[in-house]
Amino acid sequence: MRLPQLRHFAPPALAVLLLGMGIVVGTRPLGAQGNATSDGDGQRFYTNTGQGPMWVKDRLIQNGALQTPEYYFTREFDDERSGANIKGLFFDGLAYKGKPTKVFAWYGEPENLEKGAKVPAVVLVHGGGGTAFVPWVKKWTDRGYIAMSIALEGQIPGAKIEGENGKKQYRTFEHSGPRRQGFFEDVVVTELEDQWFFHAVADAMLATSLLKDLPNVDGDKIGITGISWGGILTNVITGVDNRYAFAIPVYGCGFLQETPNYSRLLSKLDKEQRDFYLRNWEPSLYVPHQRQPTLFVNGTNDFHFTMNSFTKTFEASPNEKYLYIEHNMKHGHQAGWTPESIYAFADYITKNTTPPDLPKEMLKKGRKRLRCRYQGDIDAAFLYYTTDTGDWGKDNYQWVETPAQVSDTQKTISAKLPEKAVAYFVNVINSDGIMYSSPMKMPGAE
């Protein structure tokens, strides 16, 4: 499997890697973990060390992330659910600091699911400040899917309580795994297997194995979607686990070191932590290893996951891929699971419904007129452009919406492209209100 060629990553000028033996000789790679030994001349050798997606994948597999976990349903939190078709369950997670863990999840089935019927399923990965969500599960069960929303920080249902830092947070219990520590603040200072991100990736993989083992799940039609931090995770999970029929990362993307918010947070880490993140957890390392069809979802003005990095993530994907870019989309869990295009895309993959209506290749590029083909049957098209990309994260950053002309006979979309436009994309909408987008283009870079 090829490794991604990312020009902005400095090569690890640290050691000679003996790939066949899995041993690093010489200076230890920053952030690498393992036991040190020494020969008679004082040369240090590090076994069980490495870096990058394949190293992480090996450690996940070695720790049991692909195994089917033990699980049981619980009625303790029935007051929190919305119907009898949604149940709480606990499944065994990976060990944390040598102790066993359990992960809570909401599990839901379509109402009146017949015994023996096989239906598609989806793993739901929440973002920062979130937990396992009943309404999210219901959105999918109402559309004929089995769904599992997992709590990634050891949370259990119930009202938030005041945490040690004085902030309100969801309750945990005696078998909880780690909580997220800011932006990768636990890397290097904590062994890989005890880092929150490692556990979060493993939890989703374990949930997938659990779903594949259930009698009503079509094991070849399991997808995954995540919101915000869950989108970051989705991009990483699908780079080490190729069992998914589809993926829908919402907001979360790669190249985070090129976003205003996350570049600032990265700068607060020490050099060894930054290097560890860039070599082991940066989502753009994992996207080129994905094999499933993917719908990338974002808003034009998302402060956390700006359009520059989001577009680069889309471009790095080597497989079947689609875009949904909503003008001024709000950032949040509910906003992230609302777009109907998410469910239409999943149906297209798992139920062989109508393919997405898409803006296709550009026929005419220039500073004055934009023209592109489209596929499918669309009712409307819009051009979005901005005249300033100097600061992707500024508060008053604006995208201008202008209607585009649609030719049903020629299957083309055309619009006037203002001289000052420095970035643009096209949205198309069909009669059902389903929207898809073209990739963002920058005329000066074409």
Element layout with pairings:
Elements (H helix, E strand, L loop, with lengths): L15 E3 L4 E3 L9 E4 L5 E4 L5 H10 L8 E4 L11 E11 L2 E10 L10 E7 L8 H8 L4 E5 L10 E2 L5 E2 L26 H17 L4 E11 L1 H12 L5 E5 L9 H8 L3 H11 L12 E6 L7 H10 L4 E6 L6 H5 L2 H12 L6 E7 L4 E7 L4 E7 L13 E4 L1 E3 L4 E5 L6 E7 L5 E3 L9
Helix pairs in contact: 3-4
InterPro entries: AB_hydrolase_fold (IPR029058), AXE1_dom (IPR008391), FrsA_esterase (IPR050261), Pept_S9_AS (IPR002471), PhoPQ-act_pathogen-rel_PqaA (IPR009199)
Protein name: PhoPQ-activated pathogenicity-related protein
Organism: Pseudozobellia thermophila
Which parts are unreliable, with pLDDT below 50 for 5 consecutive residues or more? 1-49
How many DSSP helices?
9
The total domain count is 3
Strand content: 25-35%
Strand arrangement across the biggest beta sheet: 5-6-7-9-8-12-13-14-15
Named at the architecture level, the CATH assignment of the largest domain is: 3-Layer(aba) Sandwich
Shape: globular
Distance between the termini: 30 Å
CATH homologous superfamily annotation of the largest domain: Alpha/Beta hydrolase fold, catalytic domain
The amount of helix comes to 10-25%
The CATH topology of the largest domain is what?
Rossmann fold
Largest sheet: 9 strands, mixed
Tell me, rounded to a whole number, the average pLDDT: 88
